[in-house]
Recover the amino acids of this structure.
């Protein structure tokens, strides 16, 4: 891909806005369309674009396969941990209202943490799928 | 006016779909699918203004990004037959299609 200069420059220009847009979708998800899953997919797509244009070895230097494995489990752990946290705080499982003194504030906190877990898992699994596909040498 | 634009976009999408289904070479199909994706972005944008809720333009933006990444990935795969290669052996192997 070294002689595709336009593609390389366009990818270098596009990847930071893609990752930033993923964070926007992640943290703006409670006011507009979006949420953890979509943000994770966009973040994963930005990393996959880097891997496609600059090679999967360079991408594995940025996000090693072990990190992907840990992150894809850590998101689920965060999701379930918020549920257990609300359980221990005296509410039902994933009942965010009891997480803070103010019920509305607790809802905000709980939803943000859960969506963060979803986004982490989805982006890690997307990158893991890309690693899986690229390791299949025809 | 917006309804007419939507109708024209849908007709263009049908034409792109016909080309994607009947394209002789794989590049015809890739170009048709890319055109279809662009038209989808425009349909989302027009529908937002048709329904008076332009805050769904984010979705159109997302569709553009995913479409670009997907097209680059498919093109690279058909050129090099390897999605993860960095140098790609300068495209010397011309695959028969």
């Amino acid at each position: 891909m070294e002689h595709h200069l336009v593609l390389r420059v366009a990818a270098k220009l596009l990847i930071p806005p893609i990752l930033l847009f993923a964070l926007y979708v992640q943290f703006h998800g409670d006011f507009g369309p979006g949420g953890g899953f979509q943000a994770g997919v966009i973040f994963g797509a930005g990393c996959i674009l880097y891997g496609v244009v600059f090679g999967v070895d360079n991408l594995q230097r940025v996000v090693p396969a072990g990190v992907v494995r840990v992150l894809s489990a850590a998101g689920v752990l965060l999701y379930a941990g918020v549920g257990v946290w609300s359980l221990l705080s005296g509410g039902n499982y994933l009942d965010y209202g009891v997480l803070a003194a103010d019920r509305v504030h607790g809802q905000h906190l709980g939803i943000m943490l859960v969506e963060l877990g979803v986004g982490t898992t989805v982006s890690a699994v997307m990158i893991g799928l890309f690693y899986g596909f690229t390791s299949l040498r025809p | 006016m917006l309804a007419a634009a939507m109708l024209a976009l849908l007709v263009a999408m049908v034409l792109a779909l016909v080309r994607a289904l009947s394209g002789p070479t794989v590049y015809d199909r890739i170009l048709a699918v890319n055109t279809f994706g662009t038209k989808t972005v425009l349909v989302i944008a027009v529908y937002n203004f048709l329904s008076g809720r332009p805050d769904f333009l984010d979705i159109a933006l997302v569709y553009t990004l995913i479409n670009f990444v997907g097209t680059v990935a498919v093109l690279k795969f058909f050129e090099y037959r390897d999605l993860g290669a960095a140098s790609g052996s300068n495209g010397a192997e011309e695959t028969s299609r």
